[in-house]
Structure formats: C-alpha cells, structure tokens
Specification:
binds S-adenosylmethionine, about 230 residues, alpha/beta, S-adenosyl-L-methionine-dependent methyltransferases, 6 helices, Rossmann fold, four-stranded antiparallel beta sheet, 11 strands, about 35% strand, seven-stranded mixed beta sheet, single chain, 2 domains
C-alpha cells in the first residue's frame, strides 16, 4: 500500500483543496467550542491538512506508512509524527480532538478493527474531546468496476493513474509515471477497504460513548461524523 507511489502522492493530490478542508475542520472544532489545543491527525499521510491546521493547533500525526511520515516531518517540522497503526496505537498523551480524514477509516477493513480504532481514539481524547471522521464509501454508494482516471503533471514528472473498485471493497491502482531523466515506469498497487454502513459506524461510536452527529453538508463530499466524548 502506497509504497511505490508515496513520493508522488502530493502531486497526484495537487488538485485536492486541503486548505478549504482544513478550514472546514477548524470551523467544526470551533462550533464544538475547541479553538486551541492539540489535535491528533490519524492516518495523516503526508501531513497536508496539518500544514493549515498547525497555525491554530498543536498537531501530532500518526500513519502506518513510513514514507509518508518522512514527507510529513519535512513539511511540518513543528508537528510530531508517529509511525503506527490506527487500530491499536499508544501515545502517552490525550487530545482536544482526533481527526481521521479522507476516508482513511476504510483502511480499518473490518468492524472488529473499526471498534478497536474507535476505542483507541476514546482513550486518547480529553473529556469532552471531539472525534471527527470523514467516512469512506458505504455498501450503497460503492461503485464496482467503474474506471477512474487522474492525470497530473509537474515540470519534470507526468502521472496517469487509473483505478477500478472491486466488489470486495478493494481497489487496484495502475500508475504510469514518466520522469525526465529517468524514463517511464508502470506499477500497480492494491488497497483493501471496509465498507461500513452509517448504522454500523453510529452503533460503534455510541457504544464507545460518543455523542455523535453526522454532518451531511460539509466541504468534504461524503460528510463528517463528529463524536463528542462524554
Ligand atoms: C487516503 S490516504 C489519506 C491521507 C491524508 N489523511 C490525506 O488526507 O491526504 C489514507 C492514509 O491512511 C494510511 N493508513 C492506512 N492504513 C492505516 C492504518 N492501519 N493505520 C494508520 N494509517 C493507515 C495510509 O498510509 C494513508 O496515509
């Protein structure tokens, strides 16, 4: 997962509006009375949201992928990044908020792992702390066998990435990458996801004593779950 493609991630996502997404997170936190303090960015990737969140909050990040953590550390030297698994992490700290964005929750793959992750978040939140989750697809809106294509270019690199979702929730990504001075490379990566229903997610959040609201109309197109730890 994301091993060969890690160094191209920011270019591939260069059209994603991270600043506007971060603004939505800041507004949401403010709505819940959190205007300062510390945030844990779970599955933080290359730390692109953190670039904008760090002006208002102290940010720690956690990701499974070492290559991403290295990029995030260079980008945001004032943030603390941990290599770890969001399903079972141990940071000796509690947070005002934990965020898990861009559908990364799908990587928990199973309800059992999702439960473990939510329980772990609970343990790392202060009283009245807020958990914000941007969901992944659910079984009803998941598109099977539909081809998606992204093409991006910088001065020296051209990338075309095609992907197709499978019935079991996995996605095969095909990368064609041309780099001046290096040539053209082709490789594939397979990503496996869990497709959780709204009811399943709400049930697990409720079981872990999160007072949860699903905000449907957010800048993030699949909405945001906000769970206040109570
Ligand atoms: C779609 S990317 C999102 C990254 C970043 N939040 C963003 O918005 O660009 C999903 C991220 O989840 C991370 N990831 C996948 N499984 C994970 C796990 N079990 N624990 C921690 N991070 C994980 C990947 O390494 C990747 O950085």
């Amino acid at each position: 997962m994301f091993v060969k493609s890690a160094r191209y991630y920011d270019l591939i996502k260069s059209l994603k509006e991270y600043q506007k997404e971060a603004d939505q997170i800041i507004d949401t936190l403010k709505y819940f009375g959190i205007s300062s303090g510390n945030i844990l960015d779970l599955a933080c990737g290359t730390g692109e949201h953190d670039k904008y969140l760090k002006s208002k909050f102290h940010i720690d990040g956690l990701d499974l992928n070492k290559e991403f953590i290295e990029i995030a550390r260079i980008k945001n030297p004032e943030c603390i990044y941990n290599e770890g698994n969001m399903i079972d992490f141990e940071i000796n700290k509690t947070y005002d908020a934990i965020i898990c964005l861009y559908g990364s929750i799908g990587y928990t793959k199973s309800l059992d792992n999702l439960s473990k992750m939510i329980a772990c978040c609970k343990k790392h939140l202060k009283d009245n702390g807020l958990l914000i989750i941007e969901p992944w697809y659910n079984p009803d809106n998941w598109e099977v066998n539909v081809i998606h294509t992204t093409s991006v270019k910088s001065k020296s690199v051209s990338i075309t990435r095609m992907s197709v979702g499978r019935e079991d929730g996995s996605i095969n990504f095909h990368y064609l990458i041309g780099e001046n001075g290096k040539g053209i490379e082709y490789f594939t990566e397979k990503y496996e996801f869990g497709l959780f229903t709204h009811e399943e997610l709400m049930k697990i959040l409720h079981k872990n004593k999160f007072d949860t609201i699903f905000m449907e109309h957010t800048f993030q197109k699949r909405g945001l779950y906000t769970g206040k730890s109570c």
